[in-house]
User: Fold SGNH hydrolase-type esterase domain-containing protein from Hypocrea virens.
Amino acid sequence: MAKPYPQVILLGDSLLEFAATVHSGFSFQAALQTRLIRRFDVVNRGFSGWNTANVVKYLPEIFSEPSASSPKIAYLRGDRQIILLGANDAVLPLETTSQHVPIETYKENLSKIINDARIRAHNPKILLVTPPPADEIKLKGLDIAQGHASAIRRSAVTASYAEKAREVARENPGVILVDLWQAIMGEAISMAPGDYQPGGPWLGSPENGKQGGLDTLLPDGLHMGGEGYKVFFDEIKAHIGQDIVPEERGDYVLPDWRVVNPPKVALLPKPSPLQ
Assistant:
């Protein structure tokens, strides 16, 4: 019987679907798989345009009941699971939009997802990620160009959905919060400190009128570019793979070549090509 690898599942919307793509020379999923190579498989279950209601409906088709032959979900995202949803739930309920999920229903849906029996049966380490900020200043022009009367996302509304994700993490013991909203906004402020006054309106909001570093981190006002995904990866590194010692290969799912083909002479360590 084949030996299944434990999995790290990326469950969410386009912010995770696009994590597989190379943005300005950086791919979040490739960086994570490299960090976990030969120990975990990173499986992308990001669905562009989906909201939490869609995920709840299709959970039985996304996750199967665990069995002796099925891979163990390590992080949800499987054995580990990363969940990043909310950017589409926070779309405003306008005549031209269809993705909006009321904020309390969004909270309920997140709780349903992380407590679903198919997921909990794997006893995964769950990382719940807040949606990142929305750059309403940039989104307004792009949304109007697509035929909407105004921006379909508001900076303040997206921030309130991020707060609901924080509440869900606090109310579910064992769930780890990854505050991507705070990480992206903090980096955006550090990139242009003169554009934000402490206690004042956030970058990307009409009240502030300036985008600061959001212009680089969120190139289209919603999705992360390479620099934004690097910020996200730095947040995830604190929780996944932090205990891996690359030179120690005893935790490989399948054995190192030195085990299956023992060298005839003592070999000195070779520098990693990734260093």
